[in-house]
Structures are given as structure tokens and as C-alpha cells.
Write a structure and sequence with these properties.
By secondary structure, the chain is an alpha/beta fold. 50% of the residues lie in helices and 7% in strands. The protein is built from 20 helices and 7 strands. Strands 2-3-4-1-5 form a 5-stranded parallel beta sheet, with helices on both faces. Strand 2, helix 5 and strand 3 form a beta-alpha-beta unit. Helix 16 packs antiparallel against helix 17.
């Protein structure tokens, strides 16, 4: 029984790896390591099907190192102990560790001293962001190498090789160029997905049939993309989604909305839209903020897939609205100030002031005096957190009032304030 096509097409040497030129190209990091006959520990991170484990195995084979493949989830402590014993028989042993971000503390404690003295080398593979998911002690001993989704042209190169290679389909099936292009375009930069798709297509038709674009479309019209709602790629899409709205590029914002809708994470999309409305549009178009709340409630009521309609309405509304971060920036500045310099509330502003004469208490019944009172803590009277913007008519009207309020001289002497017959 044959192994899967994706497995059979794995390159045995570094120069046969498709894509990832910054790592394995003529001027790539691992290429230079190979040229200098130097083995290093590294963590390869990136989306599925971008060649992380393939690169690790190809490098180990190219540099003639002894390679042992483990999985951080399923491999046990004893497996590591056995590897360390085995490594003593070789000049260089590379542990190729899949799912490296799942390596628990007990296994890390065993591995760290071996990495420290060069008894073994580690080439970890993960789809997680190593700055967030990898233990700092492991991370500091490894070079971080990011694998990117392959381009459609790079995927196409791999497909052509797989059709003709002896270890591949060995020219037993015929595909026209447009059919292979459809597979490449639908693979989302995932070469493994492309190989699996190609193999499925080869088994769906007779050997004498030339497989066409229409044949491929009939097998699957759903493109592949990495969007696990609990994975790093999902948060990358979320980040791009909000930045596209903030940057007022409507087509990009709609595109990322579509990607996020494919994951089914309706609540996550709604949460991000609400935050974006208040954070990035805010005072420039508060009516759009209100509409966002209404449309998000409608999306919840409707549910996916029809929820994409009110969601798209909201994305268009927010993206094309003027933007203001004045209120967001103000609260962030205030939070930063409080974290650095704790202050106390003035006595007359406290909920239940103690030992304070009536004439020195806050004048609840005198709204005409409220705007003349100093509310900032002592020492922060001149501190400014809010800096107005001029986006949108509503914010401009607020700014006019704001400028008038800034001209008022505020006081902490409530007794004197109350004694004035007229405030000029």
C-alpha cells in the first residue's frame, strides 16, 4: 500500500525544498549553516503545510546528522532519555519535535541541559507564535525561523513535480494547466493540502481521462485557508480585519470578514466590531457606533450564515466612516498615569466626606456651579488626557464646547464659590 502523496513528495535534501527562500534559498539561514557545516537549534513556526518538518528533515539529511522525530504531545520522558543515550553514538543528533509549543515542563527540564552543552540539537515545529507559546528558556536557546504560506506559483511548481515524479503520480494521470492552477489557488499556501487535493483528483477519474478545471471544481469548490478560531492565524486575520477598517479600505475589510465568517466564530466577530466602533470611529461618527450595536444584535438573532448580511453592513459603515481615537487615547493616557502615580480623591468629591463643614461640601443643588469646581486630584490640575480631533460634524461641535470649558478657571474653594452672587 502506497504512502500518501504528500509524504512521498517530501524532499530528501535542502535544495529540493519548495519556497521559504529566506530559510533554504541560496542566501537562506539554513543554507549558510549547511555551507559552514554547522548545526544549530531552531524553532520553525508558521501555518500548516508550509514545510516546517520537511525543512527540518531535509536539513538533517543534507548535513548528515542523526535525526530522531518526536511529538511534544505524545512522546514521553523516557523517549527523551532514550534519545540522549542514542545521541552519544553520533557526532550530531537533531531532535525534530512536532508541536513543540506543547512540550510540558518535565520534558523541558530534561531537554534544556542537553541543548545547553550541545549533546543534542533541537528543530521544533509549531503553528503557534513562539513569542507567546514557547517557554522562554527553550526559546532563548533556539533561532526562530518563520515559514510563510507558499505562493500559488510555488504550489504550482510542486504540483507539476508531483504529477511527473517517480515517487509521485509518475505521469499516470494527465492534468491540464488550468486544473493545476485551480488546485494551487485553492490551497491557501498549504502545499500538503495541494498534494492531497491532487491525489484525490487523480483517484476520481480514469487513467485515460485528462483532468480539467471543471473536473477539479466538481470535486471541491471550497478553498483551503488556515483559520482555526483558537489558533494564531485566526488572530492574525482578526488583526488584519480591524486594521483594514481603521485604514478605511473597504474591500480588504470585507475580505477579512469573509475569512472570519468561514470559521463560524460569530461572537468573536461581533466583539471585534463593537471594540472597533468605539475605539476607531468613536466621536467622529457616534451614530455609526449605535448602528453597530443594533446590527450586531441582529446578527446574533439571525445566526450564521445569514448573519453575514448585517455584519457586512456594519463593516462597510465603520470602514467608510471618519475615524477618531480621541476618547480611546484619552483613557489609555489616564490608565498609564494612574499606574505610575497613585493619587487620592479630593475630600469634597468623596462619597461620604468626614469632618467637612456644609459650606465646603459638594453643591448637589447648584448645577450652575458644577463647571467651576476642580475635579482633578492635587498635583494633576494641569494634566491633559483628552486631545480633540476634528473628524465629523458631531466631534466638531463637541470641540467647540470643549474649548469654551478650557477657558474656565476652576477652584477647590467651594465655600468661596458658593458665596459668589454671580459667576462671570
Amino acid at each position: 500500500m502506497k504512502k500518501p502523496l504528500a509524504y512521498r513528495m517530501r524532499p530528501s535534501s535542502l535544495d529540493k525544498v519548495i519556497g521559504q527562500t529566506k530559510i533554504v534559498g541560496p542566501d537562506g539561514f539554513l543554507t549558510h549553516c549547511l555551507e559552514n557545516d554547522t548545526v544549530v537549534s531552531c524553532i520553525l513556526f508558521g501555518p500548516p503545510g508550509t514545510g516546517k518538518t520537511t525543512i527540518a528533515e531535509a536539513f538533517a539529511h543534507s548535513i548528515n546528522a542523526h535525526a530522531i522525530r518526536l511529538n511534544a504531545t505524545t512522546s514521553k520522558k523516557q523517549d527523551l532519555v532514550n534519545v540522549f543515550k542514542e545521541a552519544k553514538m553520533y557526532d550530531a543528533t537533531i531532535i525534530i519535535m512536532d508541536e513543540i509549543h506543547r512540550l510540558n515542563k518535565d520534558k523541558q527540564d530534561l531537554l534544556l541541559p542537553q541543548l545547553e552543552d550541545g549533546s543534542v540539537y533541537l528543530m521544533g515545529a509549531t503553528t503557534a507564535n513562539p513569542m507567546l507559546a514557547i517557554n522562554p528558556a527553550i526559546r532563548s536557546r533556539c533561532h526562530l525561523l518563520e515559514t510563510k504560506p507558499l505562493s500559488s506559483k510555488e504550489i504550482l511548481v510542486g504540483l507539476h513535480q508531483a504529477v511527473t515524479a517517480p515517487q509521485g503520480l509518475d505521469s499516470s494521470r494527465t492534468f491540464d494547466d488550468d486544473a493545476l492552477k485551480v488546485i494551487a489557488n485553492q490551497s491557501g499556501g498549504d502545499l500538503r493540502y495541494a498534494y492531497n487535493f491532487l491525489e484525490a483528483a487523480s483517484l476520481s477519474f480514469s487513467k485515460t481521462h485528462t483532468i480539467t478545471k471543471d473536473d477539479i471544481t466538481s470535486i471541491s469548490a471550497i478553498p483551503n485557508f488556515y483559520g482555526d478560531k483558537n489558533g494564531d492565524a485566526h488572530y492574525d486575520n482578526v488583526s488584519a480585519f480591524q486594521k483594514s477598517i481603521r485604514g478605511s479600505q473597504i474591500d480588504a475589510a470585507i475580505y477579512y470578514l469573509a475569512k472570519l465568517c468561514q470559521t463560524g466564530d460569530l461572537e468573536g466577530i461581533i466583539r471585534r466590531l463593537l471594540v472597533t466602533a468605539y475605539e476607531d470611529v468613536g466621536l467622529a461618527n457616534p451614530q455609526a457606533v449605535d448602528r453597530t450595536i443594533n446590527s450586531c444584535n441582529a446578527a446574533r438573532e439571525i445566526g450564521l450564515p445569514e448573519a453575514i448580511i448585517p455584519l457586512a453592513f456594519t463593516v462597510a459603515d465603520l470602514t467608510l466612516s471618519p475615524k477618531s481615537r480621541a476618547s480611546t487615547n484619552a483613557i489609555e493616557k489616564a490608565m498609564d498615569e494612574i499606574s505610575k502615580y497613585p493619587t487620592d480623591v479630593r475630600d469634597y468629591l468623596k462619597f461620604t466626606p468626614v469632618n467637612r463643614l456644609e459650606e465646603d461640601k459638594y453643591p448637589y443643588g447648584r448645577p450652575d456651579l458644577w463647571k467651576y469646581i476642580q475635579y482633578m486630584p492635587e498635583g494633576l490640575e494641569a494634566k491633559q488626557f483628552f486631545y480633540p480631533g476634528d473628524q465629523g460634524n458631531y466631534q466638531k461641535s463637541l470641540n467647540t464646547n470643549y474649548e469654551q470649558l478650557k477657558k474656565i478657571i476652576r477652584t477647590t474653594s467651594l465655600k468661596l464659590l458658593k458665596q459668589k452672587d454671580q459667576i462671570k
